[in-house]
Amino acid sequence: MSLDAIKELLGPGGYIDDPQDMGPYVSEPRGRWPGTTQLIARPNSVEDVSAIVKICQGSQIPIVPQGGNTGLAGGNTPLGDEIVVSLSRLNTIREVDAAGFSMTVDAGCILADIQEQANDANRLFPLSLAAEGSCQIGGNLSTNAGGVHVLRYGSARDLVLGLEVVLPDGRIWNGLRKLRKDNTGYDLKQLFLGAEGTLGIITGAVLKLFPKPRQKVVALVGLRELESVVALLSLAQESHGEVLNAFELIPRLAIDFVTTHLPDCTDPLATQHAWYALIELATADDNTPLTPVLENLLAKAIDLQLVEDGVIAQNEAQAANIWRLREEISDIQKHEGGSIKHDVSVPVQMIPAFITEASQAVEQAIPGIRPVPFGHIGDGNIHFNLTQPKGAATAPYLDQWEAINEIVHDIVARYDGSFSAEHGIGRAKVDELRKYKSPLELELMANLKNSLDPNNIMNPGRILSEDDL
Ligand SMILES: Cc1cc2nc3c(=O)[nH]c(=O)nc-3n(C[C@H](O)[C@H](O)[C@H](O)COP(=O)(O)OP(=O)(O)OC[C@H]3O[C@@H](n4cnc5c(N)ncnc54)[C@H](O)[C@@H]3O)c2cc1C
């Protein structure tokens, strides 16, 4: 009955109720949490989102808010009883305020479209991740997405000035302020950033813009030891922190995987190295050439015997080839069989010790396992992905996913790290949250959830389990 009310509200084209047409809304990138639902609501106004939530609240129908459905923690697909509220038709750029370095957008705007509109206004919106062609800003803010430029600009949370949210009772909170300073009590927008749709549906946001870079240089360097990678990062930060745009770690095995399985992707260095760092510098200043700055940094690093060899991209095609080596790592692993994933962070100085210890521990558990630790090392964030041993059967290997996760996450906890650096909790890590957060933190989280969503209709079972509430 209530579902009929939603259909009537939205009219034909505003919803999907035929399971044949639901594919992209009920499957997700890793294929781990296939879903089902009776209804996918596709509102095209904030008022309709509000009306849907009011109907659902009245009938206790649980809701999964959905953006681009690229999330990697299983929070984005429905479990059967839940309806999906897709934000994809709420996709208008409401205003670009170039002079004020801000932009106001609907939650369903695709991240790449936002970047493009900012660029057209001679500005930069710096959030950047491999899923940017399909993820939506509402999803990015709800997962507090990271990506490759956190080192310089912060994560999604740091890029927001104001928010508009439909609360679990259907009321619309208009917090779309452009203020850089506003110390008027609790910062309510922070509640919804990273909440993965469990406290309300983000419908709009005021985003921060930055000066558009006019120069960008990219280098790939080879190093013998992880300690040298961390020392090079420190050197780059202390000498050129204001232009350091990205600093990514790549292990040799990842270069082998990418160059083997993507034949048009080549190793830019003539010799092989145990570890690689991708360094990107960028600046809005077009008077001071950036390439000599990077050359000086690398020369210094070679003098200090941190770097064995390196190459600076001479043109955009070479820069793209270097970035491709990094961006294809996660996807390309499937050509080598199963991959057990981790998205962890530890204090940056602890990275060498963590990778060494965690690699030894998983090798002990599964002899022949192939660790491929890569990622945003500048933020202490390692995607500690583990490819199956050569020739092993994939299904039994993947059956050990949780046991291996536990080994790795226990080590992360000892290093005062995080078992979810940027992908969130969703359904995937609810148990880990219970294990690694303190009782007081869990209690405060449950209090927040209970006070905003006492009937637990917003993305139930994600982040907190029913037992926690
Ligand atoms: C190839 C690839 C690369 C990736 N790289 C990165 C990376 O570098 N860094 C990173 O952090 N993540 C990365 N991700 C994960 C993913 O892209 C991000 O989590 C992204 O921010 C999710 O956006 P989305 O619109 O797809 O959200 P969805 O997947 O649709 O939803 C994610 C969560 O947010 C909730 N949600 C979505 N929209 C709203 C809304 N409007 N209001 C309230 N809740 C909402 C959902 O309920 C769900 O819990 C990657 C994913 C892929 C497939």
Structural summary, described in words:
The chain has 17 helices and 19 strands. The model has no long low-confidence stretch (mean pLDDT 96). The longest helix is centred in the middle third of the chain and has 15 residues. The protein is an alpha+beta fold. It is globular and about 70 Å long. The chain has 5 domains: 85 residues, Uridine Diphospho-n-acetylenolpyruvylglucosamine Reductase, domain 2 (2-Layer Sandwich); 119 residues, Uridine Diphospho-n-acetylenolpyruvylglucosamine Reductase, domain 3 (2-Layer Sandwich), CATH 3.30.465; 116 residues, Alpha-Beta Plaits (2-Layer Sandwich); 78 residues, Alpha-Beta Plaits, CATH 3.30.70.2740; 39 residues. A 5-stranded antiparallel sheet has the order 5-6-10-8-9. Strands 1-2-4-3 form a 4-stranded mixed sheet. A 4-stranded antiparallel sheet has the order 13-14-12-15, sandwiched between helices. The site of flavin-adenine dinucleotide has 36 residues, from strand 3, helix 5 and strand 10. Flavin-adenine dinucleotide binds next to strand 3, helix 5 and strand 10.
Question: Main traits of this protein?
Answer:
five-stranded antiparallel β-sheet; 5 domains; Uridine Diphospho-n-acetylenolpyruvylglucosamine Reductase, domain 2; Uridine Diphospho-n-acetylenolpyruvylglucosamine Reductase, domain 3; 469 residues; alpha+beta; 17 helices; Alpha-Beta Plaits; binds flavin-adenine dinucleotide
